[in-house]
Amino acid sequence: MAIIEVSNLKKSYGKLDVLKQITFDVNKNDVVAVIGPSGSGKSTMLRSLIHLEEIDGGSICVSGNHMVKDGVYAKPHEIKQITGKMGMVFQHFNLFPHLTVKENLELAPKMLKKETSAEIQQRSQELLEKIGLSNRAAAYPANLSGGQKQRVAIARALMMNPEILLFDEPTSALDPELTGEVLQVMKDLAQEQMTMIVVTHEMGFAKEVANKVMFMDNGEVVESGSPEQLFMKPQFERTKTFLNRSL
Ligand code: ADP
Ligand code: MG
């Protein structure tokens, strides 16, 4: 069952066509790895899904609800409802520097006022345990390692109980020795059947954890398939060239 349906997505910055008729589906419980060279439109595609960018044409449908259909956006409250099903983790963590770890986790749910403070605190405690940082609840982001910051960013995204998690190069800003702890949290989420779209340069993660790999180049989805198909039997010269450079 498709949880995200993207069709003919178009986005330009002035004369630069950044996304050219992008079409793909994500099924519930999929872990989709999005790979491709820098500047190919991966971040723009991901940001479009949660309405951090407005697209110029095409459709995005989440759980059967159109956020944008043939270039026409739904009403703001409808868009909010749809983007609320998704959480995003950025390359540079984007934690609030003036808030503690616990406060970073609890801010958005508290502002939403849908749960009691006790419920929110219980969940933040559980999530901090899950990412192995319950002893750092009172710490400020500046006093955490990059790997810890990114684990907090993941927990913060999970606080909103998203149906889908989007990751934009979550380990690219980390020292190599810190990528493992972040990838492990993501692997655990995949094992718990979280639906995830992960833009990544970590080919090992894509091979091991993803069930679909999507190769983007120059604003297009060149090809997509299972990791075996894409890594072992790439169909297009552009994919082969990229993989030869990355593996
Ligand atoms: P990727 O994530 O694959 O590296 P991006 O989606 O960040 O690619 O960028 C795709 C293209 O769009 C690049 O050429 C980039 O320079 C351009 N671009 C991205 N954001 C903007 C912007 N806000 N204004 C103008 N050009 C942009
Ligand atoms: Mg990017």
Automatic annotation (TrEMBL):
Where does it live in the cell?
Cell membrane
SMART domains linked to this entry: AAA (SM00382)
**What SUPFAM superfamilies does the database record attribute to this sequence?**
P-loop containing nucleoside triphosphate hydrolases
Question: Where is this protein primarily located?
Answer: membrane
Q: Which GO terms describe its molecular function?
A: ATP binding
Q: Name one Pfam family in it.
A: ABC_tran
Name the source's superkingdom: Bacteria
Q: Which residues form the signal peptide?
A: none
Q: Where in the numbering of this chain does the ABC transporter domain appear? A: 4-243
Q: Which UniProt keywords apply?
A: Amino-acid transport, ATP-binding, Cell membrane, Membrane, Nucleotide-binding, Transport
Q: Which InterPro entries match?
A: AAA+_ATPase, ABC_ATPase_HisP-typ, ABC_transporter-like_ATP-bd, ABC_transporter-like_CS, MetN_ABC_transporter-like, P-loop_NTPase
What CDD domains does the annotation carry? ABC_HisP_GlnQ
Q: How does it sit in the membrane?
A: Peripheral membrane protein
Record family assignment: Belongs to the ABC transporter superfamily.
**Protein's UniProt name:** Amino acid ABC transporter ATP-binding protein
